[in-house]
Amino acid sequence: MKISMQAVALWGKRAPSHSITAIMVTEDQQTIVTGSQEGQICLWNLSSELKISSREILFGHTASVTCLAKARDFEKQPYVVSATENGEMCVWNVTSGQCIEKAKLPYRHTAIYYYHCSFRMTGDGWLLCCGEYQDVLIIDAKTLAVLHTLISTQSSDWINCMCIVHSTRIQEDSLVAVSITGDLKVWDLSSSVSSIQEKQSVYEKESKSLDCTNCQTIRFCTYTERLLLVVFSYCWKVYDYCDFSLLCTEFSQRGQCFAGGEVLAAYRLIIWTEDGHSYIYQLLNSGLSKSIYPTDGKVLKETVYPHLLCSTDVKEYKSFPFIMGFMNERKEPFYKILFAGEASGRITIWHIPDVPVSTLDGSPKEIPVAAAWTLQDSFDKHQSMSEGIIDHLCASKDGTASAAVISSVYIPNLDKLVCGCEDGKIFITLALHAAKARLLENISLLKHTLPHKILKGHSCSVTCLLYPYSKSVRFDPSWLVSGGQDSCVIWWDIFTEEILHQFTLQAGPVMNLLLSPECYQLKDHRIVCSVCSDHSVALLHLQERICLLHARKHLFPVKMIKFHPVENLLVVGCEDDSVYIWEIETGTLERHETGEMAKAILTSFEDSHCLVMDSILPVSQDSQRHKNAAYKSSSSYKLGALSCNLPHAEKSSDKVTGTIHVRWPFTILPVKTNWNNISFHVLLFDLEKLVELLLSSQLNGLKSSNSFHSYDTLKRAKSTAEKRTLTLKRNKTSGCLSPMDEQINTIFTNQVHRDNNTARSLEESGGIKRQKKLKSSKKIRMQPSGKIDANITTDTAKLLLSCLLPWGVDKELDNLCVRYLDILRLQCPVSFGLVSNENHISLMLPGWNSTRGVLEEHTLINLVSRKVLDLSNRYITAAQGQIEKKNGLENDVEGTQISQTIFSLLRKVALVNTIADMPFELTNGIDSSQKLEFVRNRWRNTEAFSPSFHSFYGESPNYKSGSRFPDSGNISLVKLISCWRDQSVKIIETIQAVLLAEVQRSMKTLKKTSVISQPVTMIENGNGEIHTLPKIEQTEQTELQYIKNISLATPVSVVKQDSCSNSANFQEAEDMPDRCVLEESESPDEMKSHPWMSKVCSCKVC
Amino acid sequence: MAAGMASAAERAVLEEEFKWLLQEEVHAVLKQLQDILKEASHRFALSVGGSEAVVKQENFMLGTSSTDQVKGVLTLQGDALCQADINMKMPRNNQLLHFAFREDKQWKLQQIQDARNHVNQAIYLLTNRDVDYQFKTGSEVLKLMDAVMLQLTRARNRLTTPATLTLPEIASSGLTKMFTPALPSDILVNFYINLNKLCLTVYQLHALQPNSTKHFRPAGGSILHNPGAMFEFGSQRYEVSHVHKVECVVPWLNDALVFFTVSLQLCQQLKDKGWLEIPVLREVLGPANSASTSAPVCQCARGGTKGAFHQWKSELGFTEDLCVFWLLELQAILVSLGKSALNSPTTTSLLLLGRTP
C-alpha cells in the first residue's frame, strides 16, 4: 500500500538524541552518513570547504544501527545499506532519503562490504557480511536475501572484521577475515563467484592463528600490495600478505584501546583509538634487507619499525566510544579525511595532509580539527526552523523561554493537538491553526488569537497522554488522561477543563498509558492501564475513581500486558522474558514464570486478542508505533530461531492505524524520541485525499471561505450536537420544514465525500451506531468521526501550497500568489519529509538549506535546491506547446475562483507525486505509451471512487476543463517527469519545479484577466445551459442547481445521507436542520418521481 | 508548581549527589558487574588467544538410569564435543549398537560458542570504562547498560533456547558423518544445550514405502520431534519410530546462567536509579530552567542512589519469593568456589545476598 503523503516536520528547540554507532563518508565526499543507537540514520552535508551541516534524518529502524556500508557502485546509484542489532537491513538512497529495500534477517551484522565483480557477476552485486554468527554471509545487494555462506573448516567462529583484497598483481580478489578468537582466514572471491552462484560450499583457502584476540580492523595495503595491517584492541601488527609473516608489532599505551586503522600510503599508516586519538606512522626500513622476496621472515621483521609522524586529538569533552573512519582519495578535488562520531552525537573531521610530516625537532605534529558539528548546533543555528509547533503559545505567556513538549497526542476528529509540557502544563489547541501559526509569515495576529486552553494539574513534566476515545468508542469523547513525572495520572474533561479525578500512584514517573481491551468482563468498565518507571502496572477505573490493581513486583521493564477475560487475570510480560500473572479482583500475584513456561503462557494468550501493547516502551524505541508496527517482532527475535514471523495481532494493529490516517487529509503525528524524551511533530498531508475532497467541494460550486475560522470549535460542537439531537427528534415527529440557507453546500460536500468512500463509511456507520447507543444516555458532545470540514480542507490545501512553493524566486510572483491564491508566505524554510512506505520516513533537519551562500539564504526561503529553477524552466518549455492547445480550456481556469486554481495546482502536485513515486521496474522496461496508460489508470483508480461519480464527470465541465488528467497534451509533461525520476531527481524537487512553473503560468494569466474584470464563474449545469453569473450574488442559485443535479444523478449520495446524518458539519449544522427534510421541501417534484428516494427517506430518517 | 521550585541550595545538593552517583556509584556497580561476568566467562573455559593452553576436558554420562535405551559418554572441551561414545539398545531385537566420534572430528556446540562470545563482548564493553573514566551524563550510563544487557540477554537466550531444526536439517548436518562406525541410515543424532543441560537425542526412523497409503505430512522445525513425525530426505520419505532423549546437567552452564541473571538484574537496578529525572536537570535545561523538576521526584531519585547495596538487599527481600531459586543456586556456587573466590568483592556481596533471606 503506497500512500501519497506529503510530510512536513516541525522540530522543537532541542534536537533529537543521536548517539553515533556507525559512520561513513560517501565516495563523492558530499555526504556523511551516521547511524545511531536510537535507530535513526542521519545524513549530513559535507561542503567542499569541509563544513558540516545536518541535512536529513531517516526513520525506519527500531533498534541500534550496527554498521553502514555502500550498497551499490556509488557513482551509478547513491545507495547505502544499514544493519541493526535486531537484524533489520535497509538500503537507502542517500541523495533523496528514500528507503529502497528493507529486510529482516535473524543475523546481527557488525561489518558489511560491497563486492561486485563486473565481468563475472550479473545483478547488483553482493554484500559480504560478518557479525554474531559463524563465518561470512553473502547477501544480494538488491533483494537483501541471503545467497550463500563462506564456510571455514577450521575453528569456525564469529568473524570480527574483514577486508576485500583486490590487487592487480595477484589477479584474484580475496576476502581476508579475522575471527573473534584471532584466526586469520582467506577466501577466494572472484574465482568462487560461479560456485557461490551454484550454491556449492566454499571453504577458506588459508587459516592461520594470529595469537591475539579482539581484532578491530584488517587492511590490505594497495600501494605496496604486500603489507597487511591488523589492528587489535591492545596492539597493532603488520604482516606480509605473501606468507603472513609478522613484520612489526606496536602496543598501545596504558589504558588506550585501538579501534581501527587504515593505510595512508605506501609504508604510512593511520591508527585510531576508542577515545578519539589517532596516530600517523611511517614504517621505516632499517636498511638491513630491502629484498622484496625475503627468504626468512625474521630478517624482514627487523627491517620495519614504526615512526610516529602526526597525531590528532579531541580537546573538548569526550563521550565514549568514538567511531572513526578514514577516507582516502587520491583524486584532486577530494581530501584525505579522518572522521569520528561520538555517543554524544558530535561529528569531528580532520583534514589529513597528503604528506604528513613531523615537526622540525622530530616530535609528532598535531593535526588540528577541521570541523565539528552536532545536531543541536544545527538546531541552534537555525532557530526559526527548529521552533516547535506550540512554542509561540508558551512563549507569549511570560516572555521566558518555552518549556519543551514532552508528550503529545493528536485528536483527528476534533482536529485538536494536545501537548504535555515539561513544566506540567497541558496545551490544547487547534492543530491546523497551530501549524499555520508556526509556519506562515505575517500572522502574528493569528498567533495571538490562536484558541488554546491550558490544563494545569501536574507539578512536573507530562510524560504521556492518552485520548481514549480515538482508540475505543466506549469512552467519552471529552475525556483525556495524562500521566506525569510526579507519578500522577489525571483524568480530564477537555471541554470544561476540569480535573475529573487525580490518581496518585507513588511509583515513579508514569511511562505509558494504555487502554484495557474490549472484552466481556471489562466491557462496562472504562479502565486505563498505566505503566510506571518502577515497572509497576496500575489498573485505574476511571468512573469509580479507584485503582483496581497496582502490580508492583516486576523486576524488569514491562514489555507486554494482556488480559485474561474469563478468569479476570492480568498477564504481564517483562523484558527478561518472565511472566507475572495477577488476579485483578484480589490484587494478588498468582504466578510468576520464567523461561519456557513463560513463553508458553504468552503464546497461549496470543489467541485471545487482548493484546494491549507491544515492546514499544519508553526507553526501547520512539513511539512511531504505527510506523514501526511491521517491525515490532524485533524484541521477540531469537538468534536460535531461523525464521521470524510477524504475529498477526501486530499486523492488524497496523492496518487499524493505517485507516485512521487515510481518512484525514491532514494529520499531525507526534513522534517521541529516545533518551532525551523530546517530542516533535510531523504534519502529514494526504494528497490524494485532499484532491478528492477539494474536488467534491468544487462540484458543489463551493466558494472558498476565508481561511480563518476562529470560532471555538469545541463549544460549538457541543452545542450543535445538542441541537442536532433535538432537531432530529423533532423531525421524527413532525417532519417540519426549515428554510434553506447557503450552508447546504457544505453538507453536500460531506455527502459527496461520503460517496467517495462507500466502503469506508460503511465501516464507520457501524462505529457510529455504537456511538449512538452510548450517547443515547448522554449528551452528544461532539461531531462523530468521519466528516471533514470543507474550510479545513481548503485551509489544509493552502497550507500545503505555502509549504511547497519556493518563495523568493520572484518577488512579483510571490505577491501575486499572496493576493490571488490567498496563501501566505512562509516565515522560514520548511523541513520536508519523504514517506517511503508505512515504516520508513525521512525528514529534513534544520539547516538542510545551509549549503547555499549567505546571500541567497536571505532572499530564497524555501527552495530545495538550485536544480528546481532549472527543472522548472525545462518544464515550462515542455509545456509551451501544450498551453496553446489548451488555450480554450485555460480560459475557464482563469475565470474561476481561487479555490479552483488551488485545486488544479494541488492536482498537479498529486499527479507529480504519483508519477515520481512509481517504482522503477514498472517504467523501465515498458515503452512510454504503456507507462502513460499505467499512470492514467492509476490516477483513475484513485480518482474514480464510485460509478456515480463517473456519470457525473460527463456533466461537469468544470471538472473536465480544470484538471482532467492526462490529456494528450500532458503526455510530454508526464514523460518529462518520469524522466526526471529516472535521473534520480528528488520527488520534492520535482514537485517544487512543477508547482513553480504552474504557478507562474496561472499567475500570469490571472494577472491579465483580473485587471479587466471581477472574477466570474462559468458554470454549465446538467441541462447544458450556460450561466454566467456575478459570483457573489448568484452563488446560492447555482448551488441549488447543483444540489438538484446531484440528487437526480447520484442515487448513492442520498442513500449515504443516512450514514452521515450523524456527521453533520458542526459549524453549520447549528443553523441547519436535517438535510433530508430540506430536500423534500426544496424539490418535491423530484422526490415524487423517484420513489426509491422517498423510501429511503421514510425508512431511515423521516 | 510550588512544589517544583527547588531552591538553589537544594539544587546544589542534587548536583553534588548526581556527581557522586556518576563518579562513585556507577563505577562500583560496574566493577561488581565486571567481576561477575569474568567469573561467568571463566566458566566457558576459553583458551585465550589460541595460545594452545589445553582446555580442560570433561566427561558427561548420559542416560544413567537402567530404563534408558540410550547411554552415552560425551567429552566436552570448551565449546566443542571432542568425543562421543553412544551405546544404544535396539528395542526390537535387543541388539546393542555402538558408535563413537571419529578421532579427527569434533563437534562445535554453537550455542556455547555464541554464549561465550556474547559474554566476552559484554566484558569488552565494560573494560574501557574503568575507574579513570568519567561519566558525564546519565544517558551515557543508560546507553552502556542497554548495550551490556543486550549482550547478556542474548548470551542467556542462546543457552535457554535451542535451535528449532527440521528433521532434514538434522539429517543433512555434518553430525551424521562424524561417527565410526558410520551411523546406520535409519538413525539420526542431535546434540544441543537446553538451559544447563547437555542433551542428546537419537531418532530411530523407518522408511516409508513410496506406495504407502499413509498421509504424508512433513514435520516443521522443532527442538524435539515426536514419534510419528515425517520428513523427506534424499527423495526418500521417513517416519520417526522412536525418540530417545537423554540429558545431563553441566554444572558450569548452570553457574553461567545464574551469573547472567544476577548481572542482568544489577544492570537493570543501575538503570532504575532515576537517571531520567536528573539528566533533564543537567544536560538539557541548564541552570536557568531547571526549577521545573519537582522536589518529590528528586527525592525519589535520591532514594535510589543512596547505598546501592542497601537498596539491592531490600529489593531482593521484597522479591524474595521470586528469587529463592537462584539464591539457593548462588549458595551452591559459593560453596563450590572455595576460599579464594570468597575474597573477591563480588562473591562476598553475593554471599551476603544469599544470606539475607
Q: What's the CATH architecture name of the domain at 405-556 in chain A?
A: 7 Propeller
Mean pLDDT of chain B: 73
| CATH homologous superfamily label of the domain at 405-556 in chain A | YVTN repeat-like/Quinoprotein amine dehydrogenase
**Anisotropy-based shape of chain B:** elongated
Measured by residues with Cβ under 8 Å of the partner chain's Cβ, the largest interface is:
A-B, 70 and 67 residues
Structural class, from helix and strand content of chain A?
A: alpha+beta
- Report helical residue fraction of chain B: 40-55%
General form of chain A: globular
* Biggest pleated sheet of chain A: 9 strands, antiparallel
How many strand segments of chain A? 53
- Percent strand of chain B equals 15-25%
Strands of chain B, total number:
10
Alpha carbon gap, first and last residue of chain A: 41 Å
Strand content of chain A: 25-35%
- Terminal CA distance of chain B: 42 Å
**What fold name goes in the CATH topology slot of the domain at 405-556 in chain A?**
Methylamine Dehydrogenase, Chain H
Task: Sum this structure up briefly.
Chain A: Residues 868-1084 form the WDR72-like alpha-solenoid domain. The complex is a heterodimer of chains A (1102) and B (357). Chain A is built from 30 helices and 53 strands.
Topology:
The complex is a heterodimer of chains A (1102) and B (357).
Chain A (H helix, E strand, L loop, with lengths): L4 E6 L9 E6 L5 E6 L4 E6 L5 E8 L5 E6 L8 E6 L3 E6 L4 E7 L4 E7 L10 E6 L4 E5 L5 E6 L7 E7 L8 E6 L3 E6 L4 H5 L4 E2 L2 E4 L5 E6 L6 E6 L2 E6 L4 E7 L6 E8 L2 E6 L4 E8 L11 H5 L2 E9 L10 E5 L8 E6 L5 E6 L12 E2 L2 E5 L1 H7 L9 H8 L6 E7 L4 E6 L3 E6 H9 L4 H6 L2 E5 L5 E5 L12 E6 L3 E6 L4 E7 L5 E6 L11 E6 L4 E5 L4 E6 L6 E7 L4 E6 L4 E5 L5 E5 L1 H13 L17 H4 L19 H16 L2 E7 L6 E8 H13 L13 H21 L10 H13 L1 H19 L13 H15 L6 H11 L9 E5 L5 E4 L9 H6 L7 H19 L1 H9 L2 H20 L2 H5 L3 H16 L3 H9 L1 H7 L7 H12 L4 H26 L3 E5 L5 E5 H19 L1 H9 ...
Parallel strand pairs in A: 13-17, 26-30
Antiparallel strand pairs in A: 1-49, 1-50, 2-3, 3-4, 4-5, 5-51, 6-7, 7-8, 8-9, 10-11, 11-12, 12-13, 14-15, 15-16, 16-18, 19-20, 20-21, 21-22, 23-24, 24-25, 25-26, 27-28, 28-29, 29-31, 32-33, 33-34, 34-35, 36-37, 37-38, 38-39, 40-41, 41-42, 42-43, 44-45, 45-46, 46-47, 48-49, 50-51, 52-53
Helix pairs in contact in A: 10-12, 10-14, 10-19, 12-27, 14-19, 15-25, 17-25, 19-24, 19-25, 27-30
Chain B lengths: L7 H36 L13 E6 L7 E8 L2 E10 L6 E6 L5 E2 L1 H18 L10 H23 L6 H6 L6 E2 L6 E8 L2 E11 L22 E4 L2 E14 L1 H21 L5 H13 L5 H11 L2 H11 L1 H24 L1 H11 L2
Antiparallel strand pairs in B: 1-2, 2-3, 3-4, 3-5, 4-6, 7-8, 8-10, 9-10
